Amino acid sequence: MHVATGQAAGGTYFLARRSQRRPGDDALRRYYDKTAGRYDRQISFFERVLFGGGREWVCSQAEGDVLELAVGTGRNMRHYPPGIRLTGIEFSPGMLELARKEAALVRPDADLREGNAETLDFPDESFDTVTCTLALCTIPDDRAAVAEAMRVLRPGGRLVLLEHVRSPLLPVRLVERLLEPLFLRVEHDHLMREPLDTVRAAGFVVEQLERSKLGIVERLAVRKPS
């Protein structure tokens, strides 16, 4: 474990970053490096069918200093409003390379870095907004990622999410449960997660919640208490 201390906004911050990799980390990175080139083509279909307007909705909520978790190939980049200061992290070097190409075209001032959403290399209270789209379903420890978002947000800052989630409808939820082992094995994708429970457990205050598509699509905006 690497431990660092320093100064931020007149106070001190404490970072404890795990230096040991888990067995699944390399497999996850290899999967996204391998599929990076076809990700945009694949996800565009699901965006039309399930998530239409979701990325635009998330990005429209962004203000001030913005951190995007799991920036992927940079599909959100063109939807952020002018005037924000964007930092993005991505676990996969292959994905990050494509995101940097997109940023060069539409947001050359973006600061894009390789990083792990579960152990962010930023001081406490560094950002006004944290965004994450269609990624908490694949981050191995989603609770750690949400806790890190809470840590790096300034008081009153917002976490804004777009996700596919566990449906509140029993028949749909049973289908998700049956399919989840296959999705985990093939795409490292969890179908039964519910970010609403996770953000509440982390101490966030829910401001906006929208569900659609039989309850499996969720738009969620929450605020860190002041």
Characterization of this structure:
With 226 residues, the chain is an alpha/beta fold. The protein has six helices and nine strands. The chain has helices spanning 23-49, 54-60, 93-106, 142-152, 170-187, 195-202, and strands at 2-8, 11-17, 65-69, 85-90, 111-114, 127-133, 153-164, 205-212, 217-223. Mean pLDDT is 90; it is low at 1-20.
Briefly say what this structure is.
The chain is an alpha/beta fold and 226 residues long.
- β content, as a range? 25-35%
Largest sheet: 7 strands, mixed
Strand order of the largest sheet: 5-4-3-6-7-9-8
Radius of gyration: 17 Å
Instruction: Please report the distance between the alpha carbons of the first and last residues.
Output: 31 Å
Q: N-to-C SSE series?
A: EEHHEEHEEHEHHEE
Principal-axes shape call: globular
Secondary structure tally, helices: 6
Name the features.
6 helices; 226 residues; single chain; alpha/beta; disordered N terminus; seven-stranded mixed β-sheet; globular
Per-chain topology:
Layout: E1 2-8, E2 11-17, H1 23-49, H2 54-60, E3 65-69, E4 85-90, H3 93-106, E5 111-114, E6 127-133, H4 142-152, E7 153-164, H5 170-187, H6 195-202, E8 205-212, E9 217-223
Parallel strand pairs: 3-4, 3-6, 4-5, 6-7
Antiparallel strand pairs: 1-2, 7-9, 8-9
Helix pairs in contact: 1-3, 4-6
